[in-house]
From TrEMBL:
It comes from the Bacteria. Keywords: DNA-binding, Transcription, Transcription regulation. Residues 8-75 form the HTH gntR-type domain. CDD domains: WHTH_GntR. GO terms for biological process: negative regulation of DNA-templated transcription. Pfam families: GntR, UTRA. GO terms for molecular function: DNA binding; DNA-binding transcription factor activity. Signal peptide: none annotated. This is HTH gntR-type domain-containing protein. The lineage of its organism: Bacteria, Bacillati, Bacillota, Bacilli, Lactobacillales.
Length: 239
């Protein structure tokens, strides 16, 4: 094989260069320059750049958001941590930003055909809850929850005790549960689900549809909306 044939491909060189630049914080923001700008900066074609970016996406260092561009992932997945297979609040495992606060709003409603479907039974009343997960004055995830009123009654929760109610939704309900199902989807409706606030990047979200069970009884039905630029999902598969 000739020396020329043994040369490192351009896209591999570009990959190593970008890897070095990202790890040395050489970009001024989490969003990378546009592909034409970045290709010009590196002195390569856009096709070569896209090949290099594909490797970085495989490494979990860069995430491409359709219509928005390429973003640096601040904290790649820690493979030692539990993933979505662990029975606990999934938003903290699927969100790469650190959540600092949770705002909660709720109402008590009559059941409907939809709540009977997702809660798998008819209820005397249903509690509808909005939770907004945020940090540094911006909203990073949103959850809409339905749960039967008798679940809270069974746990002895007073709806006037907001802190206690929030603790049930965030933690206690998972301790009471025996199992849960999570369906993973993509949606453009993240910022259309509530008129209260808007999420950063909420136009393109990962949607986690979670149903929490205790034996064959549904305790709660959650829909977590996480903007794609902040979402990173991990499953640990064991033999």
């Amino acid at each position: 094989m000739s020396e020329e044939n043994r040369k490192e491909p351009l896209y591999v060189k570009a990959y190593h260069q970008l890897y070095h630049m990202i790890n040395n914080n050489e970009f001024s923001s989490d969003k990378l320059p546009s592909e034409p700008e970045l290709a010009k900066q590196l002195g390569i074609s856009r096709m070569t750049l896209r090949q290099a970016l594909a490797f970085l996406q495989d490494d979990g260092l860069v995430k491409n958001i359709h219509g928005k561009g390429n973003f640096i992932v601040k904290e790649p997945v820690d493979k030692s941590k539990d993933g979505l297979e662990k029975l606990s609040n999934p938003v903290y495992k699927a969100q790469i930003e650190t959540i600092e606060e949770v705002e909660m709003y709720f109402s008590i409603d009559l059941d409907s055909a939809y709540t009977r479907k997702v809660l798998e039974k008819k209820s005397t009343a249903v509690v509808s809850v909005e939770r907004w997960y945020g940090a540094a004055g911006k909203y990073l995830a949103f959850c809409f929850t339905y749960l039967p009123i008798d679940v809270l009654e069974g746990l002895g929760i007073d709806l006037h005790d907001e802190a206690g109610f929030k603790e049930v939704l965030e933690n206690t309900i998972y301790q009471e549960a025996t199992h849960a199902t999570i369906e993973i989807k993509k949606t453009a409706a993240g910022n259309m689900t509530s008129q209260r606030y808007s999420m950063v990047g909420g136009e393109a979200c990962v949607l986690l549809v979670e149903t929490i069970y205790k034996e064959d009884r549904v305790l709660a039905h959650n829909k977590f909306y996480i903007p794609e630029q902040f979402a990173q999902l991990q499953l640990t598969v064991r033999k």
